[in-house]
Amino acid sequence: xxxxxxxxEYVCDQASGAGSISYKKMFGEYGxxxxxxxxxxxxxxxxxxxxxxIGETLLSSPEEAxxxxxxxxxxxxxxxxxxxxxxxxxxKTCEELPMPKPKKxxxxxxx
Length: 111
Fold this sequence. Notes:
By secondary structure, the protein is of the alpha+beta class. It has one domain (5-96): YgaC/TfoX-N like chaperone (Yope Regulator, Chain: A), CATH 3.30.1460.30. The protein has helices spanning 5-14, 53-58, 83-96; strands spanning 21-26, 29-34, 37-43, 46-49, 64-65, 74-77. The protein has a six-stranded antiparallel beta sheet. Strand 3 (37-43) and strand 4 form a beta hairpin. The N and C termini lie far apart (44 Å). The model has no long low-confidence stretch (mean pLDDT 92). InterPro entries: TfoX_N. This is Competence protein TfoX. Residues 14-73 form the TfoX N-terminal domain.
């Protein structure tokens, strides 16, 4: 079952206190970004966040699962209704994650 855009927008709205939250459709599901860093995925209407040291500290006993087959386990986020805690968790996670590497310019094809 693919994720619904309504669920994706709900998650982004709930986490909006963390910074600039956005999403991008990718591989039939959605990547979630905070301040231009990818922080997690939404797959099958379930929110997964990349594992970080601060995340382990903030979540007393975090549930982990891969968002899709053969993926690395990520935190399973099931506290979406706790808006303040969710925003703080996302903000701290984002701070720990590195900025994405700049994309290389595509070389023009020679004819």
